[in-house]
Each structure stands twice: as structure tokens, then as C-alpha cells.
Amino acid sequence: CQSDASCEGNQKCCQTGCGTSCQIPDGKPGSCPNVDLPIPPLGFCKTMCQTDSDCEDTMKCCKNGCGHMTCSKPMH
């Protein structure tokens, strides 16, 4: 995707480890950090969450730069 307008319905155009993709927004505030480097460095090459609701407190479910998802501290 190029922008939110190129996504269907209420999906948002979000950065991933390999560019951008349309994703359904979650209810938690903040946004995922950019994945210039894996989170944490070297990343967990395993999916740890599928949505923000799988993460504790204010943590968000984000791409980790290794092709998987992990709970990360949001950017505000």
C-alpha cells in the first residue's frame, strides 16, 4: 500500500519489516516502532501475538523484522 486510502474499509497502511501492508487497526493507542532493525535485535523468529489484545497492558502486537509478530512498547 501507499497510504491508508489504498486500503479496504478501516484498514491502515502500516510499515512492516519488508515495506508496507494494509492492516486492521487495534484499539490500543500508539503505533508500532519502525523495524529498521529487528525487535529486539535479532528478533524472535516465532510469532508471539496476533493482535494487540494478545499483549499485556499498553504493549502492541508489531512486526519484529524477522517475518513474525511480537509484543512491543508503542510509540506515541
From TrEMBL:
Protein name: Waprin
Any one GO molecular-function label of the UniProt entry: serine-type endopeptidase inhibitor activity
Keyword presence, Signal: yes
Taxonomic placement: Eukaryota, Metazoa, Chordata, Craniata, Vertebrata
UniProt xrefs under PANTHER family: WAP FOUR-DISULFIDE CORE DOMAIN PROTEIN 2, WHEY ACDIC PROTEIN WAP
Protein's job: Damages membranes of susceptible bacteria. Has no hemolytic activity. Not toxic to mice. Does not inhibit the proteinases elastase and cathepsin G.
Ranges of residues in domain WAP: 25-75
Protein source organism: Ovophis okinavensis (Ryukyu Island pit viper)
Pfam families: WAP
The keyword Secreted appears for this protein: yes
One Gene Ontology term, aspect cellular component: extracellular space
Family assignment from sequence similarity: Belongs to the venom waprin family.
This protein's UniProt keywords: Antibiotic, Antimicrobial, Disulfide bond, Repeat, Secreted, Signal
Domain of life: Eukaryota
GO biological process: antibacterial humoral response; innate immune response
Subcellular location field: Secreted
